[in-house]
Amino acid sequence: RTGGNAKRGEWEGVYYPMGAVYLGDPDPTIQKTLDDIGIEPVTVPRPVDAWYTKGGVVPDILHHPMDMPYSRDVRKSFRDAWQYFQDLGTSKDCPPIPVQPANARQLAYDDDSFLARYGRRWARPVIDLLDQYSRSVFGIGIDQVSSFGMITQFAGEFPPIRSLPGGNAAIAEKLTDRLQGKIRTGCFTYRVEKDGEMYRVSYLQDDKPHVVKARSVVVSAPQHLAAHMVADLPADRRDMMRHVRHGAYLVGLLFLHEPICDIAFDIWTPNRCFTDLVVSDWVASEGHPKPGRRTVMSAYMPQGELPGRANLLQPDYNEWREQLLSDVEKTFPGARKKVAGVQFVRYGHPMIIPYPGYIRHVIPKLQEPVGRVFFAHSDTGALPCIEGCIYEAVRTSTRVQNVLA
Asked: What is the pLDDT of residue 2?
């Protein structure tokens, strides 16, 4: 199927995200792509982000940090931090998307982790919330994410964000409709090799082997798969592909007889097995969902890196279900009896980790073609976001057209 980590489902007329949920305010390149496929994500109505505490849920925390349930000094630290990200996000020094080319001052943010650079700058609750955000976005904490990656992502939270019912999967589905007759789904591609002046691509469809020949090939698989698919890769290139790191992820879907909490689009929940809960029909209802309706909430459950992939395989469904329901009940008493069903989506390698040095030293080498085999994926774009995917598609297709011309 198309979409990668952008998947969605439907239950009782409600589209719900099974993966990627939203994108930032689109720049001209992203907007042109959206216009070309005929789709227009809508602005997510405020309040977008809310923060759970024992005393309740505080809405719109990015725009009203002084409402946070902390001492005045801590609230001022939140305000200062948010102002820093907003100011940096509109300056020429802000780490950009796409990450290449970035200037020397921007690349300097890639030299150390976010925790190493900023861990003492703001109050501990601010750092803890940013760490929770990092785990939701990258699958791993701020001690392992470069300042470049973290700033790029978090600074993009302050302008309006965009989404569609069920998240970014709607964009992938629309693109698929536009490409009918030009793509084949349900295939497993396993080999790309040189054949004279051409390239042979071997794949399975309906358990039958097929081969196509082409003058050039774009491998849009993750690097850890591309390293096995592409024959005769130079040893240094194959070694560089092994420098790509991924955060494992679990998404829990709660199918509800009635809502648990409708105070914001995304509810951040510390000290739980999930970092945040998304109200699936928030966008479709324009921020005014009807009370008492059937709905779905998506629980985002990052698992970390290598141990996380092992964790995805060890517990059975009932263990995951009990942990999720137990933590939801702790957060919103009485929630368990509103749950009609639970579904899980397990992702082994979805979240690219932009660790310190990855953008400066690894990305330029991963973006280089091998002969007329080109590589385009979110991991060659350095960040686990749809904007990075679109930029990689534009960059690579332009290079291929130039080579073929």
From this structure: 87
**Rounded to an integer, what distance in angstroms lies between the CA atom of residue 337 and that of residue 101?**
52
The pLDDT tens digits of the residues spanning 233-249 come to: 999 999 999 999 999 99
**Closest Cα to residue 23, out of 1, 39, 47?**
39
Residues 6+ away with beta carbon under 8 Å from 75: 65, 66, 67, 68
Pairing of strands 295-304, 49-53: unpaired
Residue 380 one-letter amino acid: T
Rounded alpha-carbon distances, angstroms, from residue 7 to 1, 3, 295, 346, 381 = 9, 6, 17, 12, 20
Tell me if 24 sits within 8 A of 161, measured CB to CB.
yes
- 108 SS3 class: helix
- 171 contacts 39 by C-beta, under 8 angstroms: yes
Task: Quickly count: other Cβ atoms within 10 Å of residue 242's Cβ.
Answer: 10
What mean pLDDT is predicted for residues 281-295? 95
* DSSP 8-state class, residue 370: B
Answer whether 149's CB lies under 8 Å from 354's CB. Answer: yes
Measured CA to CA, the distance from residue 223 to residue 400 in angstroms comes to 19
Model-level pTM? 0.95
CA–CA gap between residue 17 and residue 299 (Å, rounded) = 10
Question: Rounded to the nearest 5 degrees, what angle is found at the Cα of 300, between the Cα atoms of 294 and 301?
Answer: 130
Ramachandran region of residue 167, left (φ > 0), alpha (ψ -120 to 50) or beta? left
Average pLDDT over residues 46-60: 90
Residue owning tokens 């002084």: 66
75 token code pair: 């609230």
Whole-angstrom Cα distance, residue 373 to residue 370? Answer: 5
Q: List, edge to edge, every strand of the sheet that includes 208-214.
A: 187-195, 198-205, 208-214
Question: Which string of DSSP letters, residue by residue, matches 124-193?
Answer: HHHHHHHHHHHHHHHSS-TTTSBHHHHHHHHHTTSSPPEE-TTTTHHHHHHHHHHTTTT---SEEEEEEE
Count of all residues that appear for the chain in the document = 405
Burial class (CB in 10 A: 0-12, 13-18, 19+), 200: middle
Mean pLDDT across the chain, nearest whole number? 94
